[in-house]
Design goal:
Blueprint (H helix, E strand, L loop, with lengths): L8 E3 L1 H14 L4 H16 L10 H10 L9 E6 L2 E5 L5 H19 L1 E9 L5 H6 L6 E7 L4 E3 L9 E2 L3 E5 L6 E5 L6 H10 L8 E3 L5 E2 L8 E3 L5 H14 L24 E9 L6 H16 L15 H13 L1 E3 L1 H14 L8
Parallel strand pairs: 3-4
Antiparallel strand pairs: 1-14, 2-3, 4-13, 5-8, 5-13, 6-7, 8-9, 10-11, 10-12
Helix pairs in contact: 1-2
Length: 357
């Protein structure tokens, strides 16, 4: 979900990726790691996940400089059974850790048909859809879930911040490209709230409520006083809980009161937990038949009779696919407040400004 704004300026994909990589190198990580992180962050912007792209760069650099990330990690993979593995991220950038987990899941699934790879000692890894989509490129179903890097939700009926926006992403191949469901278990991600705050825009009612009164909060500067509401009422709260158990507790990673708010703490190790599942489609049905059947059902869904006021049926992955095409051609739209932050950061680190690239 994009925050409305009165004006955007478009930056080329190469300029955004180059700025991210140069800033991360200046902040102390290797050029190879910086390029990998920059590629994933830029892909988040390309696919419309604006709260997980270059928007996050100032925060990541701040955490790098404060010692919150391991700048030279030794990420390790332990094969725990024929179809499972556990990745220890050594407090590295979450993007690097989960990329390794996805690659591991793909390799295992080639042999066993299915793979479950857990992650511990990781960090915030950006857009969930990035990692669910990786197995699709290899003829597989991809599933990703995580414990969010801060708690912004309560258990249903409670008012303490004990649950996160814990995301879930599922991706399958289609003839038009991956169909990707990428969702937080709250109505919106906290990154969206931060985007609104950066632009000085009011929040719609129904996103946040006051922890003491239950009244709506529409001032993004008061977000620290509130609870993000779950999707589907108690169902979203329950889904967040179960994903937290699977991505956190099962991996020896943080959950509940043990989670470190990486928005407020730049130095403590977060021990973020994630999981990646890969399923080799050909073990169940030939890949081409699967894709053809998915396409047939997608066509049925798109052709269904629509309710009044609905101009088109939109399915998971439509927006990210359209964004990728449009933004590769026109550039990535950035609000003035974010550009000012990025220019200030580039100046501090002595790297070329975004719009001078």
């Amino acid at each position: 979900m994009n925050a409305p704004a009165t004006s955007f300026r478009r930056a080329s994909v190469a300029a955004v990726s180059g700025l991210i990589a140069d800033c991360l190198v200046a902040a102390g990580i290797s050029r190879e790691d910086a390029a990998a992180v920059a590629g994933l962050m830029t892909e988040a912007d390309l696919t419309g996940a604006d709260g997980h792209g270059v928007f996050r760069l100032p925060q990541y650099v701040r955490r790098l400089r404060a010692g919150g990330f391991n700048k030279a990690p030794a990420i390790t993979v332990a094969r725990t059974a024929p179809a499972s593995a556990l990745v220890d991220g050594d407090n590295a950038f979450g993007h690097l850790v989960v990329k390794r987990a996805a690659e591991t899941a793909i390799d295992i699934a080639r042999d066993t048909g299915v793979a479950w790879v857990g992650v511990r000692r990781s960090n915030h890894a950006g857009s969930a859809g990035l990692y669910a989509e990786m197995p699709v490129q290899h003829g597989m179903v991809g599933i990703y879930a995580a414990v969010a890097s801060a708690n912004h939700m309560a258990v249903w009926g409670g008012k303490e911040l004990l649950l996160g926006t814990n995301p879930l992403a599922i991706a399958v191949p289609t003839g038009a490209g991956p169909m990707v469901l990428d969702m937080a278990t709250t109505i919106v991600s906290y990154g969206t709230v931060k985007k609104y705050a950066l632009q000085g825009l009011p929040l719609p009612e129904g996103w946040l409520i006051d922890r003491d009164t239950g009244e709506p909060i529409t001032d993004p500067k008061r977000s620290g006083e509130g609870l993000l509401l779950p999707i589907g009422g108690y169902k979203g709260s329950g889904l967040s809980l179960m994903l937290g158990v699977l991505a956190g507790i099962l991996n020896g990673a943080a959950f509940g009161r043990d989670c470190v708010d990486f928005n407020a703490d730049d130095t403590a190790e977060t021990n973020t937990g994630q999981l990646v599942i890969a399923v080799d489609i050909a073990r169940f049905v030939p890949l081409d038949r699967f894709v053809a059947e998915v396409d047939r059902h997608i066509a049925d869904l798109r052709a269904t009779a629509r309710l009044p006021g609905v101009d088109a049926i939109r399915l998971p992955g439509d927006r990210r696919r359209d964004c990728r095409v449009e933004r590769r051609q026109a550039g990535i739209p950035l609000p003035p407040a974010l550009i000012a932050q990025l220019d200030a950061l580039a100046g501090e680190l002595g790297v070329t400004l975004l719009f001078e690239r």
